[in-house]
Design brief:
This protein is mainly alpha-helical and 116 residues long. The chain is built from five helices and no strands. It has a domain at 71-104. The termini are far apart.
């Protein structure tokens, strides 16, 4: 079957136009305003939407998490980095360990002695 034959067959089946009275019925119905009452479900949906918006503004968004690296692994990385900076000598790892240990320990503030 060729395109011309298909088109010829389709032309035989024309859709019917709507009835003449349909236009007047539609326009008459549209001219009369209808009230649609707000029901309990509508109010509850509106309240839920307001509640969700309030919660969205009241709560913080997801906080970016620090990668879960053990503290010892971080300490070892710092020691290796300092040892490389020192020069990777025979005692570089020991010196780096002492430097990192002293940097990690809390610094005690000296108590000031008031002058008499």
């Amino acid at each position: 079957m060729k395109n011309e034959q298909i088109e010829q067959l389709l032309r035989r089946y024309q859709p019917l136009s709507p009835s003449a009275s349909l236009r007047s019925r539609v326009l008459n119905e549209a001219a009369v305003p209808r009230r649609v009452p707000i029901e309990r479900l509508d109010w509850s949906l509106a309240a839920a939407a307001v509640l969700l918006v309030a919660l969205a503004f009241a709560t913080k968004g997801p906080q970016p998490r620090q990668p879960a690296v053990p503290k010892d692994a971080l300490r070892d990385q710092r020691i290796q980095m300092v040892a490389r900076l020192i020069g990777d000598g025979p005692h570089a790892a020991q010196i780096a360990t002492l430097m990192i240990a002293s940097a990690d320990s809390p610094v005690k503030q000296k108590e000031e002695v008031p002058w008499h």
